[in-house]
Write a structure and sequence with these properties.
5-stranded mixed β-sheet, 5 strands, 2 domains, 421 residues, 70% helix, 13 helices, iron-sulfur, Heat Shock Protein 90, 4 iron, 4 sulfur cluster binding, alpha+beta
């Protein structure tokens, strides 16, 4: 938009310079005519003093109408008076000295500047008579002189008309171009305003989407940390209540509940600050999963094994968090629902993907029936939370199970390597 405005300004400035040139040229013609009439007088010329007086009067006439009152150029009646006076001064000066043809020539320019329509032709013709008279050395006095004078009149009128028509055409084209540029500039300004509105709308939508995404993130983090931790604490306290008469078992369950509470509090704080889970801050993913499996096995009294295949490499932080959270959710589900005696985790590094498999020998369930069930009344997300988290990084979650046949869960995510060795 700025380039269009600049181009329009340049065109307007060019037109203004042309008008300014038309206002200066009369004085140049008067100065040249006066200088030559004074120092190179021609035969039969009028005396210098009255000629210079008329020259000064002609300059004042132009200054009054053109320079001192530039707004008058749009008033046709005043400009007609001005142009008649201009021709009168030019006629007197040409008769006084042919050198004033330089001033009379200005009549061609001002005819197109101040006269409307067909009056310009009359102005050009009258000016051509004056210029031809000056060029011929005065009024014609013989047949040959008349012939020369006629040729000069026709030549000057034709040349001035051609130049004037071309100049008028250029002026018209320039005005049309300026108007087109102004219209384009206006449309661009409207488009810019519309874009500002769209930009503001997009910012609002982006903020709303960001708020929604943050809410979903916090919901997942609360489920993966507080909800799972509180579930484990409740399980341990219930077990402690049942083993009240056995001091060693009671103390073990209470210590487990205390450890779960501390761990959950730590993870909750890290989730609020959008930090990576603590196990991934202090260990690589295979080690973090092995530590998670060992701790879960100790707390729940279920045999758990963790193995790794392929070449372990640091993954993108979001990928590692996704796999760790999937493992936590899977083990939590096993502890709450499976009644399993053995659980196995396998982390497989392949060329394009990384897969986490969790298998148990528990009671299993009907996958098709569970998929159509609404979310549990306790507010848990279960497999839905895992699917959302895995899908968020471009992966997919597959679950295989049947009543009495255990459960196999497989989370496959892209192998995006972005960590530090």
């Amino acid at each position: 938009m700025s380039s269009i405005s600049e181009q329009a300004d340049r065109l307007a400035a060019s037109e203004a310079r042309e008008v300014s040139l038309y206002r200066v040229l009369p004085y140049f013609g008067l100065a040249v005519g006066a200088l030559l009439a004074t120092f190179a007088p021609v035969p039969r010329a009028l005396p210098v003093a009255p000629t210079l007086a008329v020259t000064a009067a002609a300059g004042c006439w132009v200054a009054w109408f053109i320079n001192l009152h530039p707004g008058w150029i749009r008033r046709r009646s005043l400009m007609a008076v001005y142009y008649v006076g201009l021709l009168a001064f030019a006629a007197v000066l040409v008769l006084a000295s042919p050198w004033y043809a330089f001033f009379a020539w200005v009549g061609f320019l001002h005819a197109f500047l101040v006269l409307p329509g067909g009056w310009r032709i009359a102005g050009v013709a009258a000016t051509a008579l004056l210029v031809a008279t000056a060029q011929g050395g005065g009024p014609p006095s013989s047949p040959a002189h008349w012939l020369l004078w006629s040729v000069l009149v026709l030549f000057n009128a034709g040349l001035a008309s051609g130049v004037g028509w071309f100049s008028e055409r250029q002026t018209t084209n320039r005005k049309q171009l300026i108007e087109a540029l102004a219209e384009a500039n206006r449309r661009l300004a409207e488009t810019a305003r519309e874009n500002e509105g769209l930009h503001a709308q997009l910012l609002t939508q982006a903020r709303e989407a960001g708020v929604l995404d943050e809410r979903q993130r916090m919901a997942r983090e609360i489920h993966d940390t507080l909800a799972q931790g509180l579930t484990g604490i409740i399980t341990q306290l219930e077990a402690a209540e049942q083993s009240r008469d056995r001091s060693a078992d009671w103390r073990r369950h209470v210590d487990n509940a205390l450890a779960l509470a501390r761990g959950s509090l730590t993870e909750a704080r890290r989730s609020v600050r959008a930090l990576r889970p603590e196990p991934l801050e202090t260990a690589r993913l295979p080690d973090a999963l092995a530590e998670l499996t060992e701790g879960w096995s100790t707390i729940n009294g279920v045999r758990g094994e963790m193995s790794t295949t392929g070449d372990p490499r640091p993954l993108h932080p979001e990928i590692e968090v996704t796999l760790l959270r999937a493992a936590q959710e899977a083990l939590s589900n096993v502890a709450r629902h499976a009644g399993a005696a053995r659980v196995g985790l396998t982390l497989s590094y392949m060329a394009d993907v990384v897969t986490l498999d969790v298998r148990d020998d528990g009671v299993g369930f009907d996958v098709a029936a569970q998929a159509g069930m609404p979310r549990r009344p306790d507010g848990g997300y279960g497999l839905t939370a895992m699917r959302q988290r895995v899908a968020r990084v471009g992966g997919n979650l597959a679950v295989e199970s049947e009543p009495g046949g255990g459960t196999a869960l497989s989370a496959t995510v892209p192998a995006l390597y972005g960590g530090v060795e």
